[in-house]
Amino acid sequence: MPLAALALLLPALAATPVFDGVPNAENQLAAGNGRWFVSGDGAVYEGRYDGRGYRKRALAARLRDGSPHACTFLGLAERRGRLFAVCSDNTLDPFAAKRLFSLDLADPAAELREIARPAGLALPNGLAVDPDGHLLLADSGAPLLPGRLWRLTLDAAGAVTGQAELHAFPLCKPNGLRVDGDRLYVSLNPLSYVGVSQLKRYRLTAGGLADGSTLYSSWGFIDDFALTTDGVVVAEFLGGRVSHVSEGGQLLKQAGFAQPTSVRVSAGGDFPAGAITVTERGNGRLLLDAGFGAWPR
User: Fold this and answer.
1) What is the CB neighbour count within 10 angstroms for residue 167?
2) CA nearest 182: which of 208, 148, 156?
3) Residue 123: which of 152, 100, 98 has the closest Cα?
4) CATH value at residue 37
5) For the chain, where are the alpha helices, taking DSSP H only?
6) By CB count within 10 A, which of 46, 162, 173, 239 is most buried?
7) In a domain, 296, yes or no
8) How many domains does the chain have?
């Protein structure tokens, strides 16, 4: 291996386990009040540091009729003091029920409650909030078919009052999703999941997406990603690494992980500032690289 490539991968040696036991670990979210969450098969887990180590607990989820429900939780987002989580009853079945849950972040005992069943979704994942308070949802689409972005309208209480297509991708599948002002970042993967993936940046407009540009391309299947002060850190699922890329597309740093699905950049709190936490799907765990050296936007 060339010395330059070895230097890029050295941070992987510093990764340590935070906790395991999250089947098919998928996405992460750090809320504004300090609470933090990891989604996976069967539950959304809340993590915490109790002074001796990291702990997790599975959040209870209930359907509209009050009955408990377990599904594969995927994208997470925070909007006006509430956590939103999208799930699929069966990720292998594009016709299985897709559900949106919500939780009051101010209530430590609150449960996830089903608030909507978005229509027309095959495999939802990325979830973000636009400047007007809409939820934006990335749907990868059925196998070998392209995906779409959806815009969900919510009322003041956080109930879904409308759903509309924001953008249809003709030849690729959207996955991770982030919003920074009027800029939307999205990871796009090939229809067969094998080929070149791209992380693209668009301008959000009332009519949809405009002025698309590619920040990063990879054969490693780009899953979720995090925005940093100088660019992005992307999880390359098939590539077995996370990559720190500048806003201009320059590769700054890489670290090796097994089937990474998401990466979160820490501003401090339960994790050191500048650290990253990474979910590994196959191992069902969350890892910490305390010395990665990236800061959240």
Assistant:
1) 21
2) 208
3) 98
4) 2.120.10.30
5) 3-9
6) 173
7) no
8) 1
d(CA 45, CA 35) in angstroms, rounded, equals 11
Domain residues for the domain of 93 are: 3-289
CA distance 126 to 138: 5
151's tokens: 């815009």
- Using DSSP's 3-state secondary structure scheme, residue 13 falls into helix
The rounded distance, in Å, linking the Cα atoms of 293 and 272 is: 10
Residue 295 belongs to some domain of the structure: no
The secondary structure of residue 68, as a DSSP letter, is B
Terminal CA-CA length for the chain: 33
**pLDDT per position as a tens digit, 71-84:** 999 999 999 999 99
Contact status, residue 2 vs residue 49, Cβ threshold 8 Å: no
Question: Which residue type does 138 have?
Answer: A
| Residue 200, in any domain of the structure | yes
Cα separation, 147 vs 172, whole angstroms: 6
Does a structural domain hold residue 297?
no
Query: How many whole angstroms separate alpha carbon 238 and alpha carbon 28?
Result: 19
Q: How do residues 192-201 score in pLDDT, each as one tens digit?
A: 989 999 999 9
DSSP letter string, 247-259: TTS-EEEEEE-SS
Residue with tokens 């095959």: 122
Cβ proximity of 240 and 220 under 8 Å: yes
CA gap 184, 206 in Å, rounded: 13
Phi, psi of 146 (to 5 degrees): -70, 165
Contact (Cβ atoms closer than 8 angstroms) between residue 278 and residue 253: no
Pairing of strands 112-116, 61-62: parallel
pTM to 2 decimals?
Answer: 0.94
Q: Which tens digit of pLDDT belongs to each residue from 115-135?
A: 999 999 999 999 999 999 999
DSSP alpha helix (H) spans, 113-253:
none
